[in-house]
Amino acid sequence: MNITFEELRNVKHSLPTGSVSRIASELNMSEQTVRNYFGARDFDAGRVVPIHLEPGPNGGIVHLEDDRIFNLAQKIIQEKQNHS
Asked: Which of 15, 33, 56, 63 could join 19 via S-S bond, C-beta 3.0 to 4.6 A?
């Protein structure tokens, strides 16, 4: 899956409080790994996630090899919108 880095950050910023913890719990990974997926760079506290960043407009193009975090984030955002 390919999206811009800006789009990936917008998804992260659209998540309600506590979503990083929920995603980590549901996918059995550390919270820092989820943060790294959305652009954090603290690799000592979490594993490197399978993404590749290519230079370009809007922060570049991000190739997400594993879209489970992205898909769960989208689901959480949709739940938030349905309850608003």
From this structure: 15
Cβ neighbours around 39 below 10 Å, total? 14
Model confidence, pTM: 0.83
CA distance 59 to 39: 11
Percent helix / strand / coil, the chain, rounded to 5: 50, 15, 35
Structural contact between residues 79 and 73, judged by C-beta atoms closer than 8 angstroms: no
Residues 6+ positions from 43 with CB-CB distance below 8 Å = 36
pLDDT of 49 over the 80 cut: no
d(C-alpha 51, C-alpha 55), whole Å: 13
What is the amino acid identity at position 53? L
- Grouping H, G, I as helix, E, B as strand and the rest as coil, residue 27 is coil
